[in-house]
Design goal:
single chain, about 210 residues, mainly alpha, Serine Threonine Protein Phosphatase 5, Tetratricopeptide repeat
C-alpha cells in the first residue's frame, strides 16, 4: 500500500474510478428517477467514458494534468448541471496539485476541499440542500483530518463520511437543482449526485488499498 501516487498511478486510479462509475450507471439512473428525470446515470457514464478515452493512450506529466484532463472530459461529455459541477470538482481541484509530483494524503485533502469549494460556487449551492456537496464536503473534511494517517486511511475516512452524508440526504428537502420542484416529496430519497461522489471516492480508496 503506497502513501503517494505519481502521475501514472493517478491516471490508473482515475481509470479505475471511471470503470466503477460506468458499472453503476443503473444505480445512478434509479436514484435520479426517484427525484429527477433519470438522466444522471447516462450522463455520468458518458463523462467517465470520455475520461477513459482521454487517459488510456496518454502519458501524463503530473497528477495535476490527470485531474485537469479528467475534469475537462467530464465537463464536455456529461452534459447538464452534472457535467458542470463534477467537471469543476476535478478541474478546480487540480489547481491544488500544481507543482506536486505525487499525490499524498495531504494533497488529496486539498484537492477535495478546493474542488468542493469551486463546485459550491459554480452551482450556487451549499451543504444541506440535497446535492453532491452533502457527500463531498464531509469527505473533504475527513480526508484532511486523517491526512497524517496516510493516503488509504484518508480515503477510507473520506468514503465513510461521504456515505454518511449520502444517507443524510434522504431526510432533506431539495431546495436547488432539478429536484427542488418536488419540495417535500423529495424526502425519503437519496441524492444521485451524492451517490456519484461516494462511488468516485470508493474507487479511489480501493485503488489506494491495492496499489
Amino acid at each position: 500500500m503506497k502513501n503517494e501516487l505519481n502521475a501514472q498511478a493517478v491516471s490508473a486510479m482515475m481509470q479505475a474510478v471511471s470503470l466503477h462509475v460506468i458499472a453503476n450507471t443503473d444505480a445512478l439512473t434509479d436514484a435520479d428517477l426517484a427525484i429527477g428525470d433519470g438522466d444522471h446515470g447516462i450522463g455520468m457514464r458518458r463523462g467517465f467514458e470520455a475520461v477513459l478515452q482521454q487517459l488510456s493512450d496518454w502519458e501524463p506529466e503530473s497528477p495535476e494534468a490527470v485531474m485537469k484532463q479528467s475534469g475537462m472530459a467530464i465537463m464536455s461529455k456529461t452534459g447538464g448541471a452534472a457535467g458542470a459541477v463534477f467537471g469543476t470538482v476535478f478541474r478546480s481541484g487540480s489547481k491544488a496539485l500544481a507543482g506536486v509530483a505525487t499525490i499524498d494524503a495531504a494533497s488529496l485533502g486539498d484537492f477535495l476541499s478546493d474542488g468542493c469549494a469551486a463546485a459550491a460556487k459554480r452551482g450556487g449551492a451549499a451543504p444541506g440542500q440535497k446535492t453532491m456537496l452533502d457527500a463531498l464536503a464531509p469527505a473533504a473534511e475527513a480526508a484532511r483530518k486523517h491526512a497524517p494517517d496516510g493516503l488509504y486511511a484518508a480515503l477510507d475516512a473520506a468514503h465513510a463520511s461521504a456515505v454518511n452524508g449520502l444517507e443524510k440526504t434522504r431526510a432533506m428537502v431539495a431546495t436547488t437543482g432539478k429536484a427542488r420542484s418536488l419540495g417535500e416529496r423529495s424526502i425519503g430519497h437519496i441524492d444521485p449526485g451524492a451517490l456519484s461522489i461516494c462511488l468516485i471516492i470508493e474507487a479511489m480508496r480501493d485503488f489506494a488499498k491495492t496499489t
